[in-house]
Amino acid sequence: PLVLGFETSCDETGVGLVRGRTLLSDALATSVAEHERFGGVVPEIASRAHLEAMVPTVHRALAEAGVRAADVDAVAVTAGPGLTGALLVGLAAAKAYALALDVPLYGVNHLAAHVAVDELQHGRLAEPSMALLVSGGHSSLLLVPDLAREVRSLGRTIDDAAGEAFDKVARVLGLPFPGGPPIDRAAREGDPAAIEFPRGLTGPRDAPYDFSFSGLKTAVARWVEARQRAGEPVPVADVAASFQEAVADVLTRKAVRACRDAGVDHLVLGGGVAANSRLRALAEERCAAAGIVLRVPSPRLCTDNGAMVAALGSRLVEAGVAPSAPDVGADSSLPIDVVALS
Ligand code: ATP
Ligand code: MG
Ligand code: FE
């Protein structure tokens, strides 16, 4: 089926087209620059920007795919989790297209879409697979017995998400928002063993699949402040590399352990932080050592986009899952085990 996907859960207006598991187009507009001076995404600004970008982005997606709107067989849209006002813009657009084209509408889970996008590059996901979902708002270990119907959360962050930690540490280091890409770049010149930052929740009695990044974030801030108070220069590259190493170490250690414990030999990474070069390299290394098949989407598809939503929509159509009600609503805190709304 030819599926048109809409993503507006945060600051990216994404519209993508997928035929089966083939990526046809992935048009993206972002309001990231408008949020930069606030150091985080401002919901009202994001909603307004989605509204302005929506129609041109749909037209670009159709043109890049070389298809007409009338060829579309189904529409998929992020129904949650995310910013309510932002989600509503995508939902309104998706409903309008589904209604006008008289095709089924699927209101889907943004997090499951972050996992589904990998199928566009590496073929159908093995089931069960383990998924490590790491983004700006979420950090979870998921057992995926059936991507169209059943996703189970094994663990999650008890405080900050991994991406949030990147964003906050970047701020401390005077790097731009969002912090992931500049930290990734700065870390290339740094020594990951320069500073021993804490690995949260890795003690023998800690929850094996939960994460905690707020202690790490605070440790980095304290370390930097101590340097500044002493009037010494802050070695930005070393701090970035050491912080990034701590995050990648904990994430990969726990993901591999979850695979081993559950007897699952496929791991897929998803979400914006999965674009991180050190996380990708360390996951590769540790999965190879543990005999786990690792799948990671290319960095561009790890961060929010419309193709990931279309990919999940396509999977739902293929699985014969019933479409959502035409009046499906936004759910800002949609639980991860709800793949699609009824
Ligand atoms: P969610 O998916 O939880 O709703 P989101 O939609 O805001 O959150 P994504 O686009 O999936 O998030 O991810 C954005 C996050 O990914 C930001 O926190 C950003 O700093 C982080 N990120 C992007 N690229 C990298 C990178 N190379 N290294 C580390 N983090 C990165
Ligand atoms: Mg974003
Ligand atoms: Fe996301």
UniProtKB/TrEMBL annotation:
Sites where the protein binds Fe cation: H110, H114, D304
InterPro entries assigned: ATPase_NBD, Gcp-like_dom, KAE1/TsaD, Peptidase_M22_CS, TsaD
Class of this enzyme: transferase
Keyword tRNA processing in record: yes
GO molecular function list: iron ion binding; tRNA N(6)-L-threonylcarbamoyladenine synthase activity
GO terms, biological process: tRNA threonylcarbamoyladenosine modification
Cofactor binding description: Binds 1 Fe(2+) ion per subunit.
SUPFAM superfamilies for this protein: Actin-like ATPase domain
Keyword ATP-binding: no
HAMAP family noted in UniProt: TsaD
Similarity remark: Belongs to the KAE1 / TsaD family.
Protein name according to UniProt: tRNA N6-adenosine threonylcarbamoyltransferase
Gene: tsaD
